């Protein structure tokens, strides 16, 4: 405010000085004007001083008012903060009083705990004293009893344990025996009932497979065409199919003999086609046999699919379906393997349903239980283990795999389906007229005879003829010479004598044929 007043006064003084300067310059011209100017300057100076004084007072008043206002605000704010500080101090005092009370309570509790601890220690000491006294009295009494009984404590304990053990074993054995007798009685009755119901509800076939097929012809004139010039046609047919063709005096019939049903079926169908066609010569025979073998493979798949549909079994792997079809051309102890497997499947389903188990899974296991018997490759494993490995390979259920592998007790049974399959297999195979033991051993001997000859190098095919009295061996002409063929025949005969048992004698015929084929175009 003082600086503003100073500026105003300085301005007024400057105006006055300016006026004097002007008057000074005009002095020479008009003295009157100079006097007036001085008078005006004085008047202006006085007015300026008055205005400056009035302005100074106004500014001072404004400053005082602002100061009072700021002071009032500051005092109000200070009073508020002071009130807050006083309130907080009161709260702190209250909390301090509460904490002091709690601290006092804690100290009282600590004192009480110390007192209780001292009392507990005194009680524990008293208990220990009493325990020591009791142990002393007990030991004294035990010693007195040992003197009376002439036994130590350990000996008395052992005698008591042995007495209790014998008594418990006696009671347990008696109880277990009663339970087992009752369980066996009930189980035997129930099992007999289930088996009898199953057998009664399952239709069976009593026909037995043999090793001979009969091919009927319209007239005996066809026999000459089948035999061919110097017997070349019949030899070509026997070499291609691996069976023996018997053309004798039987009217309008030709006998096809062979232990392998697939070979007999191939020979029968091939003969049927050749007779219908009328062209019978070695080249045509080989062509027809090859086509027939292909058709038989397709028929095997169709038989497998038809069997699965008949039994209501779904989701089998195509290879398993093919093996099911191959069962049609295999036999087990003279019993057709497919009919046996279907019968076992039906028996398993009936038993499983009576026992409240999964009938579909039991039927599946029953159908596949002998699948290892039709595996196309030779294996050293038992057919049950081989069948189990095949089922695992083609993602069958573990219970089905176990039932296949355990139906001859090669592995441990782990499911309820396994004993059902075993029992059904026994029922199907043991019924009167179902199997012939001699037939199976005869077929096995012929199969072993062929396998023995096939084990030699250079042998392409081998066929057992004349009910196992002749073995025809077809060798590779490029690898086996005439001299080697003679030696091979001798080696095979020596090995047969050493490793096999057979009635009579076996004729080994080694056939070495060289063919040269050209085409004229």
UniProtKB/TrEMBL annotation:
Gene3D superfamilies: Hypothetical protein af1432, K Homology domain, type 1. SUPFAM superfamilies: Eukaryotic type KH-domain (KH-domain type I) (SSF54791), HD-domain/PDEase-like (SSF109604). The chain crosses the membrane at residues 6-26. InterPro entries: HD/PDEase_dom (IPR003607), HD_domain (IPR006674), HDIG_dom (IPR006675), KH_dom (IPR004087), KH_dom_type_1 (IPR004088), KH_dom_type_1_sf (IPR036612), Ribonuclease_Y (IPR017705), RNase_Y_N (IPR022711). Its main location: membrane. Its EC number is 3.1.-.-. NCBIfam families: HDIG, RNase_Y. This is Ribonuclease Y. It comes from Belliella aquatica.
